[in-house]
Input
Amino acid sequence: MTTADLAAQTMPAGTGAHAFEVRGLCKTYGSGPSAVQALVGVDLDLHPGELVVLLGASGSGKSTLLNLLGGLDSPTAGTLRYRGWNLGQADEAGLTRYRRDVVGFVFQFYNLIPSLTARENVALITEIARHPMPTAEALELVGLTPRAEHFPAQLSGGEQQRVAIARAIAKRPEVLLCDEPTGALDVKTGITVLSAVQRINRELGTLTVVITHNAILAEMADRVFTLSDGHIHHARTNADPKPVETLAW
Amino acid sequence: MNNLDRKLLRDLRALKSQALAVAVVMACGLAMMIMTRSLIVSLESAREGYYERHRFAEVFASLKRAPKSVAERIATLPGVAAVQPSVAMQVTLDLPSMDEPAVGLINSLPDRGEPTLNRLYLRTGRLLAPGARNEALVGEAFAEVHGLKPGDTVSAILNGRKIPLRIAGIVLAPQFVFEAPPGAALPDNRTFGVFWMREEELAEAYSLEGAFNTLAVSLAPGGSESAVIAAIDRVLEPYGGLGAYGRADHPSDVRVDDEIRVLQGLSFGFPLVFLSVAAFMTNAVMSRQITLQREQIAILKAFGFTNRQIGIHFIKFALVIVAIGTISGAICGYLLGQKLVGMYHLFFRFPDLTFILATGALVAAGGASALAALVGVAGAVRRIAALSPAEAMRPEPPASFRPAFFERIGVARGFSVTFRMSLRNIERKPVQAALTCAALALATGILVIPNSLRDGISHILDFQWDLSQRQTVTVSLVEPNSPRALADLRALPGVITAEPYRGAPVEVQAGNRTRRLGLSGIPAGAQLSRVIDGSGRQITLPKNGVVLSRTLAETLGLQPGDTVRLRILTGERPTRDVLLVGVAEDFAGIAAYMDMDALNRLLQEGDRITGARITVAEGRWREFLTAIKNTPRAAGVVIKEAMRSSFRKTTAESIGLLQTIYLGFATAVAFGIVYNSARISLSERARELATLRVLGFSRGEVGSVLVGELVILTLVAIPFGLVAGSFMAKVIISTVNTETVRLPLILTASNYAFAVLVVTLATSASALLACRRLNQLDLVGVLKARD
Output
C-alpha cells in the first residue's frame, strides 16, 4: 500500500495528476487598514515526486505559501487542493490528520524535542504514523546511525537538522516541506543536510518543497518559483538538476 | 507613567490568570490570618473593657452559708481590695415555651445601690425597683432563646414554693460572658439561664437573711492571688467553703481564654503554610517570566538600563501580585471576621463585641508576603544581572537531558515516548519538580484538616451521647437524698429505668498539682452512664479506687496504679488517698468516677443519691415532663437530645462554619497551585508542544504530553499529602484542644478520599484550562523563532 492509498483512506477521495492544485490563492493577515496581504492570487501546480525550490526575499510570501501547503494555516480566498481534496476548506481535525499522514516538515531551527534522543525523536513520529519505516532505517538514510542514542544538546546543528529530516521522512510522507533548512547552518553542514533531502526525494519519490533565499540552491531543483510581494514572479524548469555537492555557495 | 511601567502593566495583563492564581493563594493565607488575629483583638479588647468597666472580680468562692460579718473579715485580709458577698441559688424554672423544666441560677443584688463587684450591664428594660417583690432581671442568652421581654413572667420554684417572677430588664454580667451551668463544657441556653433578684427577697426564701453563700473579691494593687485564695479558704472552711479560685479557673473566663488560644493556634499554622506556598508560586512565576524575557532584558541592558532599574521592574511585578493578594485577603478576612464575630454571640455575651481589624497583623502579613515575593524574585534577578547583554541576547543553550532514572535501571522498557519525555523533564529540574510536588502535597494535605475537625465532632457526638450516656434525661436533686427519692423518681409516669448517681465536689491532688471538679459516684453495673476506656470498652468500677478522665490524669501526671489524694469539699470534708484504677476516655471537661457505694463510704453521710439518669418511654414523654416540673425535689433536668441539638447548633455549627471557610480556602489553594503548575509547564514547553502539533499530533495527544508531567507529580504528591495532612491535622487539633473541649484526631477513609478527589478535580480542571490554551499556540510563530 502506498501513502497515496493511505491518504485516500483518511481523506475524501480525490483524483488528479497534480499533487497540489492552487488557484487564486490569497492570504491576508489582520483586517482593515492594518491588513497585510501575504499572498495575492497565487496559481500553482505541483507534481508527485518533483523537487521544488521556492525563492524569494523575506516578506515575499514564500513561508506563507509553505504554511498553507503544509496545513498549518488556512487561506483567505482561492482554492487549494491536495490530490483533489479541498485542503483550503479543511477543518482543524482534517488538517491535523493531513499533517499526520501526508506531510513531513523540516524547520530552520530543527525543533527537536530536547528531552528525547535522536532515535526517540524519530520514534515519536513512527508511533503515530500509519505505515512508518523503521526508525533505524530513517536514521540510516540521513547517515546518523552512530549518533542515534544522543540527545539534541549533544548533537551539532547539522546533526540536529538531519535528525529533523529523519523524523520528517520516517512516516513515508508524500510531501516533504523544508523551511530554510540550512538557514542556521554553515556551508559544509548545509551541503550534508541538503544532499540528504535530495537523496530522499530521489529514492523515495517524495514531492519535496524547499524554501530558501539562496538562489544558488535553485540548481538542485526540478522546478524553481520566485516569489515577490505575494505573487509568483517567475517560474522555471531545470532540465538537468544538479547534485547538491556540486553547487558552489 | 514611564514606558517600563507600561510594559509591566501589559505583561501583567498577559499573565493575569497566573498572577491571579498566586494572589488567590496569598489572599487565602492572609484572610485567615487577618480574620483570626482580628477576632483575637476584638475578643481581648471587648473583654478587657467590659471587665474593667463592670468591675469583674479576681477571686471567687462558694460556700454553704456564712454571716455577712465573715465577708467583712475577708475584706480586711492583706491583698484584698473589695468584697461582694451575695446569695446564689439554683432553682427550677417553669416556662410556658418548654415542656421540661429549666434550671435557673438566681443571684442576689444588694437592696440598695449597685454591687461593688460584677456589676450588671442593662441591655433593655430597667433595673430592679427598690422594695419591689417578685421581680427579676434575666441574662440575655436565656432571654433570647425563650423570647423573654421586660414585663413577661417566669415561674421559679424557690425552696419548694412556686413564685411568678416578672422580668424587669434583660442584663449581662461579666461573670457570665459564657452563660453555662457550673461545670458544663457546652452552653445550653435553652435549659439554663441566670437571673438576679433583690437580696432581701432571695435570702428570705432560703432563710439566708444576713448571710451569703457566694463571694467575689478584687485584689489590691500588688496583692497576691494565691495568698488571698489560701487566706479565704482558711476563713471560709468552718462555713462549708467549697474552695476559692482565681480568674484562671473561672468557668466563664476560661472559655473566653480557650477561644483566644484556639484562634492563636489557627492564626499561625494555616496562614504560614499558605503564605509559603504563595512565595513558592511567586518564585516560579517570576523565574519563568524572567527566562521568557531574557532577550528583552538584554536589549534593555544594551541600551543602558542598569541592573537596578531592571531588578526594580521585576520586583514591582511581584509587588503588584502581592498588593492584589493583600488587598483581597484583607477584604476577605475582614468580611469573614465580621461574620464570625456575629457567631460568637452564640457563646459569649459582651455588651459590645465589635469587630476590630487587626491592622498590625495586616501590615505584618502584607510585609511578610512582600518579603517572600522579594526573596522569590531576587534569585532570578541576580541571574540576569550576572549576564552580559551580549550573552543574554543569545538564546539559552539547548537544555541537556539524559535518560531518566527508571530507564537507567532498566524498568522503562514499556514506557511510551511521551511518558519518557515527562519523566526526563521531571528529572532535569529536580528542585522545581520537588517544589511543585510539595505544593501539590500541601494542597492535598490542607484538604484533610477541615474534615478531620468535622469527623472529630461527629465522633464526640456518637461517643458522648450514644456510647457513654444512654439515658433520656438526667434529673438532679436539690440536695443529697436517701434512696427513697429514687423510688419516687421511678414512680413517675413513663419511667422505664432509673439509675441513681451520687455527685460530690472534690479537689483531686497529685504532688503539688490540683484540680477541682465533681466526683461522680456510679452504681455497680450501671447501663445508662457508662465509663468508657480508650478502646471503647466499659470500665467496671471496682469497690475501691477512682477512675480519672484521660486529660485529668495527664494534667496531674498520674498513671493507673498511682495514688491520688481526694479532698472532699462538702459535708465532713474528709481527705483520702485512693488508688487510680483506670483512665477513662472523654472529650469534654475533666471527670472523676467512683463506685457509688465506695463514694458514699468516703463521704460518711450514709446511703445518699444526688440524682438519677432515667430512660422514659417514648409515648409518655410529655406526661413525664409535666410530672417532673411539679417535683419540688428535682433541681435540674438535662435532656440528652436537647443537649445534643444544642451542641449541634452552637459548637458544631461554629466549627462547621470554620470548616466550610477552611475547606473553601484549601480548595482554592489546591486549584491555584495546580493551575499555576500547568501554566508554567505550558509556557516552558510551548515550542515543543507546537512542534508536536505541526508534526500531526492531535490536540488530545499534545494535551496528554503537557499534562503527563503534572499527573506524575500529582500521583507522587497525593500519598505524601495525605501523610502531611494527617500530621497537620494532629498539630492543629492539638493547638485548638483545651481542657474544656477536646477533639479527637479522627482520620477516615472518606476524608482522604475527599482530599484526593478535590485535588484530582483541581488537577483535571486546571489541566483542561491549560489544554484550552493549546488552541492558542501560534504554530507558525513558534517554529520561526528560536527559544
Chain B touches chain A through 33 residues (CB under 8 Å).
